[in-house]
Amino acid sequence: MHVNREEPRAYYIPYSTSENANSGKRGQSPYYQTLNGSWKFNYLPSVKEVEDDFYKEDKDVKGWDDLIVPSCWQTNGYDQLQYVNYNYPFPCDPPFMPIENPTGLYVREFMVSDQWESKEKYVVFEGVNSCFYVWINGTFVGYSQGSRMPAEFLVSPYLKSGKNRMSVMVLKWCDGSYLEGQDMWRFSGIFRDVYMLARDKAHVRDVFNKQQLSDDFQKATLSCEIETTGPIEVTVELKDASGRIVSLGEASIDGKGSIPLVVNNPKLWNAENPYLYSLYVYASNEVLTFTVGFRSIAVQDGVFTINGQAVKLKGVNRHDSHPELGGTIPVNHMIKDLVVMKQHNINTIRTSHYPNDPRFLELCNKYGFYVIDEADLECHGVYSAGPFNILSINPDWKKSFMDRMTRMVERDKNQASVIMWSLGNESWYEVNHIAMAEWARNRDTSRLIHYEGAQYPRVETNPNEESLDLVSRMYASPAEIEKYALDDTNSKPLLLCEYSHAMGNGPGDLKDYWDVIDAYPKLMGGCVWEWVDHGMKTQTAEGIHYFAYGGDFGEKLHDGNFCIDGLVTPDRKPHTGLLEYKKVIAPIKIEAVQLAEGRIRITNRYDFIDLTHVSVHWKVEEDGVVVQQGYLDDSDVAPHTESIVRIPYELPEVSANRYFLTLTCKMKVDTLWCEAGHELTFEQFELPVERIEAVVEPSLAPIHVTQNGHLVAIEGFDFQHEFDLYDGTLTRISKHGLQLLQSPATFNIWRAPIDNDAHLKPKWLQEGYDQAVMRVYRSEIIEQTENSVSIGVDFSLGGYIKYPILHGKSIWQFDGTGKINLQVNVKVREGLPFLPRFGLKLTMPQGTEEVEYFGFGPQESYIDKQHSVKKGKYLQTVDELFEPYIRPQENGSRFGTEWVSVSNGQGMGLNFTSDKAFSFNAAHYTPEDLAAASHHHMLVRREETIVHLDYKMSGVGSHSCGPELAPQYRLEENEFEFKLVIRPVFKEDE
Ligand code: GAL
Ligand code: MG
Question: Which of the four pLDDT bands, split at 50, 70 and 90, describes residue 459?
Answer without folding.
Answer: low
